Structures are given as structure tokens and as C-alpha cells.
């Protein structure tokens, strides 16, 4: 192995080495500068000297392959890398501040603070999974936050990239990772299921709002294996004021069988973002763990973990989209609404893990001070919610697949776009502009949504009887979208 | 330098043409031809002529078991393959047959090895079907990466400094850096008779600077290639399997 070239003042590939800022078990971190890069930088150097853990080399190789391919606010930007032939390193953006590990003395956090952290981390995970990467080491010390609030996931040494060789595949005889956070399927060497990260985030959420780790701190194989059959204490047993919606979410993340967890991190973020709409099941109220008989059955019938074909992360995400449908509840939109329902039904029928968010925009006046009560004293917001649920009822969706949202906004298109962005919506279904002169003059909500949305948009237009579809005025108008 | 690597053309003119065009349009500077130019397909004369011309222009070529069977009949070949070889032998000129017989079994270039089947004993024409097979090939050479074909299914194996193996089915179009710290065996898919369920022709590019290999799939005129097989009286299964990719 080549002797380390790293010392304060040394220059490697244009990076000038500064101070050593962290000495970890697998790597050291140095502050570095580069004349062409204004951002503060860190250089991560693996520990590869004689006698060091060979795991350090392999996990560094993974990080070196994965980091340069990652994009976006939820990962540190990568500015360069060097291989083992000369000096192995990755040069990455220095995220100021501390990891979430620093919050441990403050645990338990209050529920809403834990919820908000959960939304941010789940959003970051969803972004990572969309890039075909499973983190596999989600824990407080892997999570940082930008000044703008976004969670940043660091440390990709144990990660899996669906389109790259998995160098950790045969490297270790025991699963490698952080035992308290490790998903049960990892004990069977399954490394290609993104729901393993959802499990780890469930452990973190459980821990942060109760102060207790759901599976203890055991690092032994025996201690880790218990989670294959033994479910954790329901948080409500530990804290009587623990909210049922949070228990519902956390215990769903901690399901032993990956298929019973949230199908995607986006869907988890969605529920954490709308706690009032979480469909409560028996999980939410539980005060005890599963009865011993169930536990024994699990222990001796581990069919759930039978070998299965390699999973395709992108296909799994695509099968579990968040679909938002914008429904106009005003008079005279029945035809469009029926067409919207039919389109939604078709999409949901092919995707059993998809969920549907029904949106309605309650338009606020630009100048007048708005009142949510109309002149007859009805609460307009509640009326709209009722109307949305009524619209959705023929779809006969499980409640955990359906949410309804009334967005109060001056500009309907912006409200829908914002909802789609914040909630990581994958597909918007919206009615086309009605054929009226007034709507034409105001511009079409659907055309703006279609052109500016961050995702797929389906614009639905009801079929008209022949001969009545277009008036001369309409033909002179530009198309609706 | 960007290399383009092709394995198991099997006299499929349409597939080979499509792959060569795709490689040229990507700026490939050197062509590496990993054997089995003939057998199964209906255009052996054109294929061998094309390979001879490419070699004259600087391409590297190695001999495959079907190329070998033209001059040295194989005892282990199945009936269908044998029928195709017997038909092919009658189509090739003496010059073409001599060209195939004289091809080397392996070629080395810098830290790369080119071989048709695998590196431990090329003349035995063993298939690489597992990490164990791949490990046997990797330890037999000092090359950083060996490129082979033969099995008609793309795969990428690596061995770490501590002799741990990894296996991987590459995603087409996505480059993988062959890290320097380990040694690699890149098994190419087939140009002319893919068997991994994807009927598109398969080749690979390798950038010698960045050490990045990219497996690529190219759509080609399968109907014409299959019709040529039928029109020449070759076994019908050889035509049918092209559209199934198996």
C-alpha cells in the first residue's frame, strides 16, 4: 500500500490539505481548499494502513463509486476522488453544523419536533431512493441539516446502488452496519430493498420520541436476530401520551416483513406531513407486544424471508406513487369530475401500492379579508372536505390509500404545484379548462400545472357529444394545455 | 482511448452492423473482437470479411470455439450448433478458414486481457457461470481486467485484494468504474444471439482513462436476420430464438 500523502499543507489534485477535523474508525476527515471551488470542502481519507480493518477499503470503494453520482440538496456534493493507486480520497462539500447524534442528550424530543425531523429525513431518503441508492446506515450520526432545513444524508460506505456492483455483497460473513438500526432482512444478506432504510428511520423516530431504542443496543448476532420474530414494545406503553397517529406510523416502519412497511419513503413523509389524516389501525392503540404464540410462529416459520429475485428499486418506487387529483367541487363540474374519477380509478387499479391525495382549492380573494364562514355560517373548508370524500367514495379505496386536502390559496395553480412539490407527488390528475370565455380569459389552471409541475400530469377532458364539443370561439382560442 | 468490445457475433450481419455503427458514433477508437464470429447465423462470409478488414485496420481479435470448430471439428457441440458449423464450413473460403484458424486464443494490451471463454484454460472453452468460475479466471491472469464472452449473458465480476468476489448483472447504458484496487472479469453479452431475455444486440465500451465500462444494447433488424437463417435452411430454432433473446 502506498504511504499516505496526507499532511497539512500538502496538495493533492489541486486540493490543499488543511487541518484534520475528525478521526473516525474507518476514515479521517480533513478540511481542504481548492482555488476553483468556493464552497467549504472536506477530504475523506480511508484508513488503509497495515492492520486496519479491510472493511475500511471496501466501504471506501463503495463511497467512491456512489458519491460522484449523487445529486441534489440531500447529499453532500462531491468534487473529486482519487483511487488507491496513489492516494484514496473523496473531496466533498463540508456541511456546516453537527449531525443529529448531538441531539441524543436532549431525547426524548417532543412529538411534533420528532415528526418534523421525520418528514425531513424521509424526504431525503425518498430523493436518495429515486437515485437508485439505498443508504443502509440511517442513524443519527449519518444525518445533518442544511441551514435551509433540508436533511443531508452522509456516509455511503455501506450503501447499495442498484446499477453498480455491490462490493459488500460477499465481503463479510455477518451483516455489516449499525446493529440497533438494522432492518431484519439485512440479517439474510438482502441489500437491495429500499424499505430497509424505512425500518431504520422507524427505529430513529421511535428512539427520538421515547428516548428508548426499540431493539436495545445489542451488537451481538443473537441480539440482532431477535428482531426477526420479536416486535418492539409499542411506544404508547412507554409513554401514555404518545399520539396514536405517531405509533401507527412508527410501528408500520418497524414491521418485520418489508411488504407491510410503507412502500416508499415519500409515502412515509406524506403521512408524517399530514398526521391528522393518518389512517389509524389496530397498531395505533396497541399497548402490548404480539402474544407469545405469534412470536413463536414467526420464529419457527420464517417463510417471509425466503429467497426472492433481485429487486429493482426504480420499479418498486414506480409501483407506489403518490397520485394527486385536483377536483373542482363547484356546480356544473360533474362531467369533468366523473372523468377524473374514471382516470384515477384506472391508474390506481394497476398500482395497489399507490395512494391518492384529493385536492380542492378554496380560493381566497386577493384583497378582502377572508372568512372561512360564508354568509349562512357554513364552514366552507369543512364543506369542501365533505365534497371531496363524497367524490372519492365510489373509488372504494382503503382509507390508508386516500387523503383529502383543501388548500386555501389566492392562486389555484400555485397551490397545486406547491402541494405537489412539498409532498413529492409523482403524478397529478387535473381537469382541462372548461369551455367558457371567462375561464379562457383567466387562463387555465391545468395548463400551468402541466407546464410547471415537477412530475407527470394527466389532463382529463370529458368526452362531449359529437357536434357540441367546440364553439367557434373555442376554436379561436389556443389549446387548453 | 475508448474501446468497443464485441463478443459472439455468430454471423448475424444485421446485429453486428448495428453495433459497429453504435460504437463508431460513440467515438470508439479501437475495436476488440472476442471471438465466435461464425456459427448459428446466416452471414458468415460477410462477417469474417468484416472482421478481417477490422483487424487490418488495427482491431484485436481472438478465436472462439465456433471459429475453432471450422478447422477442428468439436466433439462436444450440440446437434444444432454442429449443423450450423457444417453449413458454415462450406460457405467460407480457404482464406477465411485460415484466418479463423490462425487467430490467437488470447491477446493482452496494457493491463487488459482479451479471451473468448475465460482465462484459466482458454482452449477448454469453459463457461463463466458463477463467482467460483470467475475467480478461477481472475487468478490465472495478472491483468487488471479480462474481457470475455462465450456465455451470451452479460455479467461483471470483481475480486478484492483479500480475494473476496462480487458478481453483478450490469444495467445497460450505465457506466461502472472498474476500480483499480481490485481485479475484474467483464463477461460480455452477445452481439448476434443474446440469451439473457433481451433480444437487443449487446456490446460494451471501455474508456481506458477513466476505467469505465458501459454495457450497451442496440435494436437491430431481427426479422431480416431470422429470415436469412430460414432461407438458408439452417435449423429453425436458430431463427426463432433471436426474437426471444434466449
Overall residue-averaged pLDDT value of chain B: 96
**Termini Cα gap of chain B:** 33 Å
Number of DSSP E strands of chain A: 15
What's the number of structural domains of chain A? 3
Keywords summarizing the entry:
heterodimer; A: alpha/beta; Transferase(Phosphotransferase), domain 1; Rossmann fold; 3 domains; 15 strands; 32% helix; disordered C terminus; B: 246 residues; alpha/beta; Purple Acid Phosphatase, chain A, domain 2; 6-stranded mixed sheet; 8 helices
Model description:
The complex is a heterodimer of chains A (481) and B (246). With 481 residues, chain A is α/β, with parallel strands linked by helices. Chain A has three domains: 11-93, Phosphorylase Kinase, domain 1, CATH 3.30.200; 100-163 and 178-303 and 312-317, Transferase(Phosphotransferase), domain 1 (Orthogonal Bundle), CATH 1.10.510; 321-476, 3-Layer(aba) Sandwich (Rossmann fold), CATH 3.40.50.620. Chain A is built from 16 helices and 15 strands. Chain A has a six-stranded antiparallel β-sheet with strand order 1-2-3-4-6-5. In chain A, strands 13-12-11-14-15 form a five-stranded parallel β-sheet, with helices on both faces. In chain A, β2 and β3 (27-34) form a beta hairpin. In chain A, α2 runs antiparallel to α7 and α3 (195-210) packs antiparallel against α6. Chain A is globular, with a radius of gyration of 26 Å. With 246 residues, chain B is of the alpha/beta class. Chain B has a single domain (2-244), classed as Purple Acid Phosphatase, chain A, domain 2 (4-Layer Sandwich). Chain B is 34% helix and 22% strand. Chain B has eight helices and twelve strands. Chain B has helices at residues 13-25, 44-56, 65-71, 79-91, 94-102, 131-139, 222-231, 236-244; strands at residues 2-6, 30-33, 60-61, 106-109, 112-115, 145-148, 155-159, 165-168, 176-177, 183-187, 201-207, 212-218. In chain B, the strands form two sheets. In chain B, strands 3-2-1-11-12-9 form a six-stranded mixed β-sheet. In chain B, strands 4-5-6-10-7-8 form a six-stranded mixed β-sheet, with helices on one face. In chain B, α3 (65-71) packs across α4 (79-91), α3 (65-71) crosses α5 and α7 runs antiparallel to α8 (236-244). Chain B starts with a strand and ends with a helix. Chain A binds chain B through residues 54, 57-58, 61, 64-65, 83-85, 88, 162-167, 169-171, 310, and chain B through 131, 156, 158, 160-162, 164-169, 171, 174, 176-177, 179-182.
